[in-house]
Structures are given as C-alpha cells and as structure tokens.
C-alpha cells in the first residue's frame, strides 16, 4: 500500500491581470511544504502536475524545500483547473466589479458556486471549456493510473482546487453540492492524502496545513 499526496497550488494572484502566477506568499508556502517533508524524510516515487504556471511554480518551490527531486515529472492537462472566468460569464455576461471588499469577494464566490452547479448539471456550456463529464474524466484517468501503476509508493500530485475536490468526490461518491463545498474550502498549499492499492483509493486526510502549524507560519494560511 502507498500514499497519494494531492497538493493545491500556493497562493496565486487573485484580482491581478494574470491569476496564473504565484504570489510571494504562494512561493513561501510551497518552499515551506518541501522543507516540512524533507524534515520528515519523505520522498516521492512518482510526480504529476497540471500544466498551469502556478502548478509548475508550486512544484519548483516544493523541490527547493526538499533539496532536490530525482523523480521524473509528468505534466497532465487533465489536472488543470476549470476556467472560473468562463463559468462566471456563462451566468453573468456583464463584467463583475473587482472583488476588493469582503462583500464583493463573497458575491464573486457565490456566483462561482452557482455556475459550477449549473456546469456540473449540464445546463450551461461555458465558452472554451470541456463539459463536466470530460473534466471529471480527466481526473479519474490520473487516479486510475496511480491505482494501477503506482499504488506501492509515494505519489505527489500538484494541482488546483477543482481537480482535487473532484478526486475526493469520486473516491467518496459525494453529490455535486458537496464536491463544490469541498472545492471552496481548499486552502493554498494544503495537502490531501489517499492511501492507494490496486483495488481502491481511500481518503486519509483532507485540506491539511501541517507544514504551517507553527507560530512562525500560521499567518501564511490563505484561500484564494
């Protein structure tokens, strides 16, 4: 039996022209996670990431903290995040105000949750996005590869909240509403663990930030 570690990327650049870029805090979170694992002697036999910049940059930070990585990295488009802008435009064609207050931030994510539910239910088809079955199928394909080919070792996946919550939903058999709720709760650089065997994947932990659980690092926890 092995362990699959799914890591949500470090803090990206919410509200900036290019969200797909780690912030300075996001880089610190990623390096700290690698340091935490190095301190505990954790190594990885297989590594997967999505193909987005924030995935690559997060892995680079983890590797820096680990002190190196000898394992080849497989970049898989099926681990990429959904397009939140396309989802929002599918239900709210007019431009939204910049989410620079707590009220506007909450409004932004209420709309996103509504759009996700409609996309998952097949009632909207956001421009440039796959349908829900194709998106979730890409996540399922990676999980099956882990189960059949890498179940005996430590596997690292660096991805985003959408694919990670989808993976948890598939393993637990959750409803779309619960999968969306899980998605909204995932924190930056958080770790979710599955135990792996050729027969099944089993959830062990969800959305943990053990690497930030010190007086020095607790203030580093972020969500967006």
TrEMBL record:
Q: Gene3D superfamilies attached here? A: Phosphoglycerate mutase-like (3.40.50.1240)
The organism sits in which domain of life? Bacteria
Keyword check for Hydrolase, yes or no.
Answer: yes
- State the Pfam families in the record: His_Phos_1 (PF00300)
- UniProt keyword list: Hydrolase
Which regions span the lipid bilayer?
none
The record's PANTHER family line, in alphabetical order, gives: PHOSPHOGLYCERATE MUTASE-RELATED (PTHR20935), SERINE_THREONINE-PROTEIN PHOSPHATASE PGAM5, MITOCHONDRIAL (PTHR20935:SF0)
InterPro entries, alphabetized: His_Pase_superF_clade-1, His_PPase_superfam, Mito_Ser/Thr_phosphatase
Q: In its UniProt entry, what is this protein called?
A: Histidine phosphatase family protein
